[in-house]
């Protein structure tokens, strides 16, 4: 099996910073795209940022210039550095990864972490 475990969420004042981490483990052959999504109460889950295995990134307009996604392929980890946080960034943040496993050759599966709460106070 494959697991994604997020860490680094918490409570921060507006203007502050947090760094989220996500570790992938299990029967992993290769991790392709990784990303962060978020879901605020009463809203649909939305894309925050994605990063390809080669390091190409994509950001939601609402976080451009404030958030930075990065990854460490050797450690199977993805990070989200969040600066200049705003109350509207409050949400549960989910790690996502598209993974080729060791037991299903050539088939890419989409995995999600359990989520980590980020709360930004005004």
The structural class is mainly beta
How many DSSP helices? 0
- Mean pLDDT across residues: 96
Indicate the low-confidence ranges by residue numbers: none
Number of strands: 11
Largest sheet: 7 strands, mixed
Write the element-wise H/E pattern from the N-terminal end onward.
Answer: EEEEEEEEEEE
- The best one-word shape is elongated
Measure the end-to-end span.
Answer: 40 Å
Percent of residues in beta strands? over 45%
Task: Indicate the percent of residues in helices.
Answer: under 10%
Top keywords for this entry?
122 residues, mainly beta, seven-stranded mixed sheet, 0% helix, 61% strand
Secondary-structure blueprint of this entry?
Elements: E1 2-7, E2 10-13, E3 18-26, E4 28-39, E5 46-51, E6 57-59, E7 67-72, E8 77-82, E9 91-101, E10 108-112, E11 116-121
Parallel strand pairs: 2-11
Antiparallel strand pairs: 1-3, 3-8, 4-5, 4-9, 5-6, 7-8, 9-10, 9-11
Structural account:
There is one protein chain. The protein is mainly β. The chain is 0% helix and 61% strand. It is built from no helices and eleven strands. It has strands at residues 2-7, 10-13, 18-26, 28-39, 46-51, 57-59, 67-72, 77-82, 91-101, 108-112, 116-121. Strands 2, 4, 5, 6, 9, 10 and 11 form a seven-stranded mixed sheet that branches. Strands 1-3-8-7 form a four-stranded antiparallel sheet, with no helix packed on it. It is elongated.
What's this model, at a glance?
The chain is an all-beta fold and 122 residues long. Helices cover 0% and strands 61% of the residues.
């Amino acid at each position: 099996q494959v697991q994604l475990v997020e860490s680094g969420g918490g409570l921060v004042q507006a203007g502050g910073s947090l760094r989220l981490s996500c570790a992938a483990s299990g029967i992993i052959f290769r991790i392709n795209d990784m990303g962060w999504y978020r879901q605020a109460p009463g809203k649909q889950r939305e894309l925050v940022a994605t990063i390809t295995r080669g390091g190409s990134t994509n950001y939601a307009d609402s976080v451009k210039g404030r958030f930075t996604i990065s990854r460490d392929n050797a450690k199977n980890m993805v990070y989200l550095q969040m600066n200049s946080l705003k109350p509207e960034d409050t949400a549960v943040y989910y790690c996502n990864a598209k993974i080729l496993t060791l037991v299903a050759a050539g088939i890419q599966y989409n995995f999600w972490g359990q989520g980590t709460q980020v709360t930004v106070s005004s």
